[in-house]
Write a structure and sequence with these properties.
This protein is α/β, with parallel strands linked by helices. It has a single domain, classed as NADP-dependent oxidoreductase domain (TIM Barrel, Alpha-Beta Barrel), CATH 3.20.20. The protein is built from 11 helices and 10 strands. Helix 1 packs across helix 2, helix 2 packs across helix 3 and helix 7 packs across helix 8. The two termini are about 35 Å apart.
Length: about 280
């Protein structure tokens, strides 16, 4: 596994396993068990996914030492604010059955993020979190948080895939020593990604699948990815990307797929802000 170094010196795997939209305790626990068996050590969950306990069960039942894992969870909008963040964090920690998190993210750029950020800094000082970051933050929100808090996020987890490549945002994040992480690396199959002719042709050159090409492309860009699957053969396929390298001309071709817009929703849309802010997870 290849790692990157976050801005506080913590190592983070470039490839992990996400559990978004894996329902049910048994199904999620089995999926994480399979992922751990294959070799995934970065496991990404969130309070809004409602599967932290299943993730914790799988981690606890594995024979892998805790220090070999990199566990991420996220704070939901209604839990923002200093005191509520502390309470939500300890609930997450209890469900995961862990003594600390490797990374804790503010899930959406909404609510009292500044109170949350102060709480998360205190949790770092208390040894409960190794690194803190954000998700779905545009560069202006990142800069505002950085300037007004005095602490730069370690990670920004954002929609990143061949149809939304986030080149300018990655440049901004790099200039500010913030690691970009992709959610939805396969665009959840939108735009027929898995049947895309450009990606399939490149895959044929290397005897690799479209999914493997996408993950290798992200890796070579230095983007952390957390693909999700409940099928063990797909997890194995996604993990088999360390034995080849895409040529420069392949990267140039993939760059032509960028449409520069989200395939899901706009975090600056007032209606979406309202929906996310009112969307309770309990």
């Amino acid at each position: 596994m290849e790692n990157i170094i976050l801005n506080n010196g913590i190592e983070m795997p470039l490839l992990g396993f996400g559990v978004f939209q894996i329902p049910g305790t048994k199904e999620c626990e089995q999926a994480v068990n399979d992922a751990i068996e294959i070799g995934y050590r970065l496991i990404d969950t969130a309070s809004s996914y409602k599967n932290e306990q299943a993730v914790g069960n799988a981690i606890k039942s594995s024979n892998v030492p805790r220090e070999d894992f990199f566990i991420t969870s996220k704070l939901w909008v209604q839990d923002t604010g200093y005191e509520k963040t502390k309470a939500a964090f300890y609930k997450t920690l209890d469900l995961l059955q862990l003594d600390f998190l490797d990374l804790y993210l503010i899930h959406q750029p909404m609510g009292d993020i500044y109170g949350s950020w102060r709480a998360m800094q205190d949790l770092i000082n208390e040894g409960k979190i190794k690194a803190i970051g954000v998700a779905n933050f545009h560069p202006d929100r990142i800069m505002d948080l950085k300037i007004n808090s005095g602490l730069t996020p370690a990670v920004n987890q954002i929609e990143t895939h061949p149809f939304l490549q986030q080149v300018d945002t990655q440049k901004f994040l790099g200039e500010n020593n913030i690691q970009i992480q992709s959610w939805g690396p396969f665009a959840e199959g939108k735009n027929n990604l898995f049947q895309n002719g450009v990606l399939a042709a490149i895959g044929n050159k290397y005897n690799k699948t479209v999914a493997q090409i996408v993950l290798r492309w992200l890796m070579q860009r230095g983007v952390v990815a957390i693909p999700k699957s409940v099928r063990k053969e797909r997890m194995l396929e996604n993990f088999d990307i360390f034995n080849f390298e895409l040529a420069a001309d392949d990267l140039e071709v993939i760059a032509t797929l960028d449409r520069g817009a989200s395939l899901f929703f706009d975090h600056r849309d007032p209606n979406m802000v309202r929906w996310l802010s009112e969307h309770k997870i309990d």
